[in-house]
Design a protein that fits this description.
With about 725 residues, this protein is of the alpha/beta class. The chain contains 35 helices and 17 strands.
Length: about 725
């Protein structure tokens, strides 16, 4: 080992406690110390931070680390101070500092105590900061999250594009750019903007072999997320949402369902964000529900799952956010819920932005759609996106598509037809227009370019558009086509496609997932959940008959049919649960129930049944102004008529609002109002009906039962009282 390498290893051991470097870290550090500009592309968890932290300790002067988030800076500085003998070794310089704190930072830099200075790009633009930094020795500049420079990156920040000119004002020093996500286009953009085209490039594989990737249809999403988290008890995880409002809503829903979760987004004050982040790091909270503001640089190696409630805006975002799972090499499960409606919403958000920005955004969004809908190996797809070849045999079934592969069909002739269509149309079109040509769909663009006169026009109309999009995706990933990023995704032939056209070979096509009927599927799943299990019902009837024979009793004496139907819906597996079944009291449950609950318990285990008792998702009150006003007003015992008129409602509408609140799990006390309209005996009669006689909460059935003795409004108010007292 050379003297330089010996020094590197000694310093690595001294400050970080490691005996060996990870991957190409040693080469990166060496290049920077030799004065070269360096570009580092490493996946999340690959050890990017050490690439600039170690040379900072080994160099004269202070290294300037440009970082996008105050929370990220704080986390990094805290970590570095743990390696060193004093806190002066690392500082932040940003808008969160008081004048006194900023003065102390500058004194420590002047005195040569500070090796790393973390700054936001906005802080670097201030003239007094530039003048100060110009007066001290700077060892090098490092730009963390360098993808922020590129308009093609997933987190573009205009202020990042001025960094090169600011560095030149401060003084020439080597530049290190670091990112976990960079397509070739983003990489090129970063280097060009920073004037570091000749930088030494160190690119690690993007493959995170320990992560499991899965995309699910967005059906009963809250229930599915709760179920998933409860299947991974006491494990750390992150749930990502696109909006702050959704973050708050999901965090509260998880909390009321017994999950130790906290929200995190930029709308929370700094202290709350820091407190929630620390709670997650210190394992006082298991789950963080967050916007993408959370997680950048968070050094928590044992995040076991990352759930996307909403599909992200780009594959870069998805890759970076999922990369926060399993950084220690252990289990990391990544589940994303996908509905095309979410894509349409994201598309609408882009309206009003400059045309170029819209085009870029739409192309990034299309890649996300392709990833979600593809049935090919997800790992192969995402690595191809980052310019890396991957043999899907090596996925080891660590994605849903490899774990549950869909049937493949020979597609040689269709691939050939696609390539001929691209050639015939002179490589002028994106995927969408090419699909329209193949299926023979007339559009304004096809009309303008006379594409209906092409030989390939409508030659593929025996297949639908979804099939042809699947063909294009799979052909692209196999390298038989190129996508021209500069021209927003035009499809181009290459040497591989030309070779295929000359000598066609077998090409197996897998049809993509179909997410178009998500709403229909959700409606069906909701209906299904309210229908009893016919197979279990037959088993229970046979059991009832068998037991009745041994006791010499008619079967209905044990349990009536409606009770068995309710058991086949609710799956009770304890005596206590059996007493909640329609028509089953405590005496009957204790006398006849033991064999029935044993039978149901075995059935549930053998068939992996999700019991309603196990997965009753408690909802949170929608804390709109109206709901809060109603709750506060009933607490103050205001007449319901006054509450209704104050909000411009009639009485039936107000009662409907109160019913919604009660059904969502919040108690509303309207006894004071009911006492004025119904006497004690009347209340008891209606209450007892709902408690003991009613098979459902139907008001129509109650009206029939009481045969005009009570108004509909009276029964609705008593149902509210009953639910508040008994259910909430």
């Amino acid at each position: 080992m050379s003297e330089t390498n010996q020094t590197l290893h000694t310093t690595l051991k001294k400050y970080f406690g490691f005996s060996n470097f990870k991957g190409n870290q040693e080469l990166v550090v060496q290049s920077l110390l030799e004065g070269h500009d360096v570009f580092v592309i490493k996946p999340t968890g690959g050890g990017k931070s050490l690439c600039y932290q170690l040379p900072a300790f080994m160099s004269e002067g202070t290294a300037i680390i440009v970082s996008p988030l105050i929370a990220l800076m704080k986390n990094q500085v805290d970590a570095i101070r743990n390696f060193a003998s004093n806190d002066s070794v690392a500082h932040v310089l940003n808008s969160s500092l008081t004048k006194k704190e900023a003065k102390r930072v500058k004194e420590d830099i002047k005195n040569g105590l500070t090796k790393l200075l973390y700054v936001a790009p906005e802080s670097l633009t201030k003239e007094d900061n530039i003048a100060f930094l110009n007066s001290v020795e700077i060892s090098f500049f490092a730009i963390d999250e360098a993808h922020c420079i590129s308009e093609w990156g997933h987190d573009f920040r205009p202020e990042y594009r001025n960094l090169r000119s600011i560095f030149e004002k401060i003084g020439k020093s080597p530049i290190m750019a670091l990112t976990a996500t960079a397509t070739e286009k983003v990489q090129e953009d970063i280097q060009k903007n920073l004037g570091m085209e000749n930088a030494k490039l160190y690119k690690s594989s993007f493959n995170r072999g320990n992560l499991f990737y899965e995309v699910r249809p967005k059906i009963n999403v809250n229930k599915e997320i709760i179920k998933f988290i409860k299947q991974h008890p006491k494990k750390s995880g992150i749930v990502y949402c696109l909006s702050r409002k959704k973050v708050e809503e999901i965090a509260q829903t998880l909390q009321v369902n017994g999950i130790n979760a906290l929200p995190y987004h930029a709308g929370l004050d700094v202290n709350t964000r820091a407190r929630h982040q620390d709670a997650f790091l210190m394992e006082d909270c298991n789950v963080i529900v967050a916007t993408i503001a959370f997680g950048m640089g968070i050094d928590k190696p044992d995040v076991r799952f990352v759930v996307h409630h909403d599909i992200p805006k780009s594959l870069e975002s998805y890759y970076q956010e999922t990369g926060r799972a399993g950084r220690d090499g252990g289990e990391g499960i990544c589940v994303a819920f996908y509905s095309y409606k979410d894509i349409e919403k994201l598309d609408k958000f882009m309206q009003g932005k400059p045309v170029a920005e819209q085009e870029i955004g739409k192309q990034l969004l299309l890649e996300t759609v392709s990833f979600a809908e593809t049935s090919m190996c997800r790992r192969k797809y995402i690595l191809h996106y980052f310019g890396e070849f991957f043999d899907d045999e090596n996925c080891n079934k660590l994605c849903d598509n490899c774990k549950n592969p869909k049937k493949q069909n020979e597609g040689k002739e269709n691939v050939l037809l696609l390539l001929k269509a691209i050639k015939e149309s002179k490589e002028k079109f994106k995927a969408k227009e090419l699909v329209n040509i193949l299926i023979g769909k007339m559009t304004a663009m096809i009309n303008d370019y006379n594409c209906n006169k092409l030989e390939a026009f409508s030659k593929g109309n025996n297949k639908d558009a979804a099939y042809w999009h699947a063909v294009i995706r799979q052909v692209l990933v196999q390298g038989l086509l190129d996508k021209d990023i500069e021209s927003y995704g035009l499809l181009k032939l290459n040497s591989e496609s030309r070779a295929f056209m000359e000598n066609p070979k077998s090409f197996m096509i897998t049809e993509d997932h179909d997410y178009t009927d998500i709403e229909k599927q959700e409606a069906q799943s909701n209906v299904k959940s309210a229908v009893f299990d016919a197979i279990l019902l037959d088993i229970l009837k046979d059991l009832r008959k068998k037991i009745a024979k041994t006791k010499n009793l008619p079967p209905f004496v044990l349990f009536q049919d409606p009770s068995l139907e309710d058991m086949a819906l609710q799956y009770p597996i304890t005596i206590e649960e059996l007493t909640n079944i329609n028509g089953v009291g405590t005496g009957k449950a204790n006398r006849f129930g033991k064999e029935f609950i044993a039978c149901i318990s075995d059935y549930v285990k053998e068939n992996n049944i999700d019991r309603p008792q196990d997965m009753v998702v408690k909802s949170i009150v929608n804390k709109s102004g109206l709901k809060v006003y109603i709750i506060q007003s009933t607490d103050r015992k205001l007449p319901l008529g006054d509450i209704a008129s104050a909000k411009g409602l009639d009485m039936p509408s107000l009662i409907k609002e109160i019913e919604n609140i009660v059904y969502s799990g919040t108690k509303v006390d309207i006894n004071y109002y009911i006492d004025d309209i119904l006497d004690e005996d009347q209340q008891e009669e209606i209450f007892d009906y709902f408690k003991e006689d009613a098979e459902t909460d139907s008001i129509d059935e109650a009206m029939t039962e009481f045969d005009g003795d009570y108004e509909e409004e009276d029964l609705r108010l008593m149902r509210i009282k009953f639910l508040s007292d008994m259910a909430n």
